[in-house]
Every structure is written in C-alpha cells, then in structure tokens.
Predict the 3D structure of the following.
Amino acid sequence: MLANQIERIRGAEFATVAEVVRDFHGGFDVPQRPTMGYAFRDASLLDGVLYAGTATRHLRPRAGRRPVGMVGHATGRAAFYESWTGNRWFGNWLSDDCLTYRLAESAGVPTTTSPAKGHQPDYERRLGMAVTRAQATVFDELILFDDLPNNDNKRERATDLRRRLVGPEPCSHRGVFLLRGMTGARRVLDNERQVAEHLATRHGFRVLDPSGASLEEILDSCAGAEVVAGVEGSHLVHGLVMMPAKARVLVIQPPARAVVALKLLTDRQGQDYSMVVATGGDDVFHADIDEIDRTLDLV
C-alpha cells in the first residue's frame, strides 16, 4: 500500500481498529493450532441449534418456531461442515465451509442446515459436494469440526478447491475487477464504474458483476487473473479461491468499515495483498484512481 493509507481508517468490523491495523502491517508470526474434530452421541438439531448433553452450538439465528410434524432420526454418523459465519456471509461459506466439507465427507455423511441459494448450487455441483440437508433431527452420532486455524492442511484443501474449480491451468491475464454495486450490506463506492472502466482501458482488466453472472462466466474471468480487484466484500472471494498462486488481490477498503478477512486468506495461501483506503462517509465513499494506479505499480 501507499504511505498514509492506514491513517484513513476510522472504523473496523469484526475487530478493533488497532487489531486491523496490526494485521494490515503484518510482519509477525501467528502459530496455527491443529484442526480438531469432536464426536457426540445422541445429539439433536432444533431451530438451527445443535444440542448434545449440556452443550449447544448455534448454526444460525433462531426462528423461534417449533418444527411442524415429527422430528427426524438420522442413523449412522453425520458430519456437520457449516458455520455461523458461512450461513451469514457467502464469502465465508466459499472460503471456509467448502473446505470443511472435505473433512466432513471423510468422517461421515456431510450435513448442513443451510438451503442452497445464489451461486451455492453451482459450486456444490462443480466441487462434487454431496450434501444432506437437515432440519429437526436426532442424530445417533454427530461430528463437529474446529476448522478455524489457517494451518497447512487447510491451505492444501484450499489449493485442492481451486484445482477442482479451475481444472487445467488457465491462460494468465492481467486482472479482473469484480463489481459490488448495491449487493450485501450497504457499502457504496460512488465511482465504482469509473474505476472499473479505467482498469479495463488502461490495464486490460476484465470487468464482471458476479451477482448476475453464471459460475462459468465467473470462472472465465477470475481463473487466470494476476490481480483480483474490487470493494471489500464477499463477492471478491469468487476471485480469491480461483486466482493463481502468484496472484494478488487489490481491495478498496471503506474508511469506516475496514476488514482484514481477505488478507488472512491471502496470507494463508502465500499470495499478495494490496489495498487502497477510500475517503468519504460511512456508507458512501470514493476511491482515488491515481492511488489505485500507483498501488498497482508497487509490485
């Protein structure tokens, strides 16, 4: 990043400003603990909450409704791979839950409460995910995973996910700008179209709105990109899980909602991370195109 970018950050999400600034600066080691799996007997699922003995795990906000009809009974071993964050944000589902699925398929019947929506069914087919969707159910045996650590095994699973999506190594191209538009929580880059057009005409970037694109179109635009660029958000994860090992992401950060999550993904995969911090209000902000050009020139 250019000098004086971090000083623009006045707010952060999911962490304090001090923690986010520390992670953006980097230069320190974070030991990663092993991934763990835990087995429970006679577990039950009700209204998005798993129960086993005195333990509970919330998978999603409770609807507050009792199930209609009989509660199902699942024999054998079910292995849950979903997370609260993956149910809330598509990017976490793709970057994390889809990796945990590979653990689940080797431990039991991969199970989730999440309905397939948006691009998820296409990704499931492309990745060969055979999913059992459960609601109110009693399980003879249930496996849960602590798969948060970005350890070597998780990195290998992420590399495998890219191989399953991309197939044979695609031709390299300069980059792709993924439009955010009005999708997700309100974070509006007021000159997003101008930034996209500039990157297309001056740098040869492809421009794509993933919200209206098929998975094949997303693959075609992202698979060989040397740079994946756009406003911070889940839509960028389409590109991050597909871009080559030596690629980098260029994130336009809102000044009042800086998020370090995408940098943690590139750290895990040994890829580069660049950012420009926008200026402006909390919900609507502006990116300096000259700063974007100079940031691209840094590497």
